[in-house]
Amino acid sequence: MSELRFDGRVAIVTGAGGGLGRQHALTLAARGCKVVVNDLGGGAHGSGQSSTAADKVVEEIRAIGGEAVANYDSVENGEAIVQTALTHFGTVDIVINNAGILRDVSFAKMTEQDWDLIMQVHLNGSKSVSHAAWSIMREKGYGRIIMTTSAAGIYGNFGQANYCAAKLGILGLANCLAEEGRNKNILVNTIAPLAASRLTETVMPADLLALLQPEAVSPLVAWLAHENCKETKGLFEVGAGFMAKLRWERSEGYVFPNQHVLSVDDVARQWDKITDFTTSTHPSSTTESFTPILEGIQHPNLGGNEFIDLDVASKAQLEIESSYDERDLSLYALGIGAAQNPLDHSELAYVYELGSEFQAFPTYGVMPQMNAMLNMAKQGITLPGMNYGFDRVLHGEQYTEIKRPLPPHAKLTHTFKLKTAYDKNPNAVITFAISSKDESGEELIYNEMTAFVRGAGGWGGDRGDSLATNIAPDREPDAVIEEKTDIN
Q: What is the mean pLDDT of the chain?
């Protein structure tokens, strides 16, 4: 791989009289870049002015055969800094906004001057120099801008409210310029460096500062400034040999039903889901950020409450295994009254498991899924989105299909899915569809189990069938069965 060069490129490095800025300037110059070394020459707190710092770095660059010119303007005067580049080198290709000062003080004691000076140098200065170079870069269809933020701006830090606000403001500025410059080949990235400088020497021990050399930061800056690098809108932490890209992370969140009048109690009930990062997303644009909201408007969720989350339940399915044998079939048949007359052998096949004609009573098809559900409850397992216990449930209806005669014994896998949910405010009616398959994957039984769930309604959903469906039609019945309660 050939050496990455900057021949013919012109860079402006602000705050380049020492520390990181100096190293950025030297690194670019050593690779053929022409550099405007900007430094006001003031103190770490923004006071004073001197040409010495910038002049010294220019001399260092010229000593290694590079081209450089000094500029002593405040970064608030971006036009003058960019004019220096135009006067001496005819253009500007790269802007590295590095200049900074500190006015650390607790928020309670912070003065307006403490706040304003930090904003003027960090945020306004980055804006001023970038804005002055922007039209030049747009016209030539090329530009690289590197902003400098801080871990304090990203994460917050005691006693630096002004600095944190300005540094995070710089990141916001960079993100916007990255979008505006994208189609003009103006790429904008941000670094959050940790290195020894006049801004860190008062807050870090000397032995640590010795390990945090600017030389470990400038190679990343040079790469982001190079024409081969296509990265834009990136945020990078860098220092002592460590480099990493940061991105926003958002919890999957919770979407409340649009038709539901939202209350503070609803928020409190769903707080664990709202703040759960077990599954997360990483939006990188405002469009991606708005996606869940727009999807919620275009495709309203099904609704629910603290007991029932229909959006979760409708997408979920739960598989659980159970088995039965000849003993289970016999006990079931005896339990429903089969073969109560020992002299009547017509139902003996349902209760005598050793008989050659032993078989399952067809309605036993209700039991395997019911037993599986009871086992689920014992283990604390519920269908996702169904957040209620048996204390609220009354078994309402049962629909069963026996796909073929049941074998004398079987190991089954039951798949539970939500079929329907009706809001009978203040209660709910829930129907589950359960498919039961044997070990070969053949479906033996299909059930629909409907439960009345006390106090689980009120989300504003469909009430379902009306009472009229429970009124017998005005005609003779299809069949009549009369039974008398057995003596036993």
A: 90
d(CA 201, CA 189): 26
Note the pLDDT tens digit of each residue in 246-267.
999 999 988 776 656 778 988 8
pLDDT class of 460 with cuts at 50, 70, 90: confident
- Cβ neighbours of residue 224 under 8 Å, at least 6 residues apart? 144, 146, 187, 189, 191, 231, 234, 236
Question: Rounded to an integer, what distance in angstroms lies between the CA atom of residue 341 and that of residue 336?
Answer: 13
Is the torsion defined by CA of 113, 116, 121, 122 positive or negative?
Answer: positive
Taking 60 as the threshold, does the pLDDT of residue 228 lie above it? yes
Q: For residues 266 and 50, what is the distance between their CA atoms, to the nearest angstrom?
A: 61
CA–CA distance, 45 with 252 (Å, rounded to integer):
43
DSSP assigned state of 3 = P
| SS3 call for 180 | helix
Active site residue 163: yes
Structure tokens at 192: 């959050």
| Residue tagged active-site, from 72, 142, 155, 163 | 163
Cα(281)–Cα(252) distance, rounded to whole angstroms? 6
Please list, in sequence order, all residues whose beta carbon lies within 8 angstroms of the beta carbon of residue 27, skipping any fewer than 6 positions away.
Answer: 218, 219, 221, 222
Task: Dump the DSSP string for 107-159.
Answer: GGG--HHHHHHHIIIIIIHHHHHHHHHHHHHHHHT-EEEEEE--HHHHH--TT
